[in-house]
Write the structure tokens for this entry.
Amino acid sequence: MDLAEQALTDAKTIAVVGLSRNPGKASHGVAVQLQKAGFRIIPVNPDADELLGEKVYRSLTDIPEPVDLVDVFRPAEFTPDIARQAVAIGAKTLWLQQDIVSAEAREIAESAGLTYIEDRCTAVVRSLAQITKP
């Protein structure tokens, strides 16, 4: 089992930063697939109140419950701040989606002891490894 598969296997609650209201966007489709696989999804989007039947939070630091994995669908230039927020809330994993790479976010996350994954899709890894939650 690789690091990405292990991070998903260990996670129960996933904050999806940049979850879109648009069903045609990757963030929406990925979150739906994760939700269907049994993960608890917490949407993070400053412009929505409810997505996929869940209350939406403006930032990671507004979430009032523990988060295992932070799944990021935002451009790379925003990821260092998201990494700092992930550290602040005690997340275990920071995951930057496919085509998102940030040396600074990696440094912030890894220096705080978070598992760091970049340029990979949570839904693809979950599907290929057949990870589901009860």
Summary: The longest helix spans residues 26-36. The CA atoms of residues 37 and 75 lie 26 Å apart.
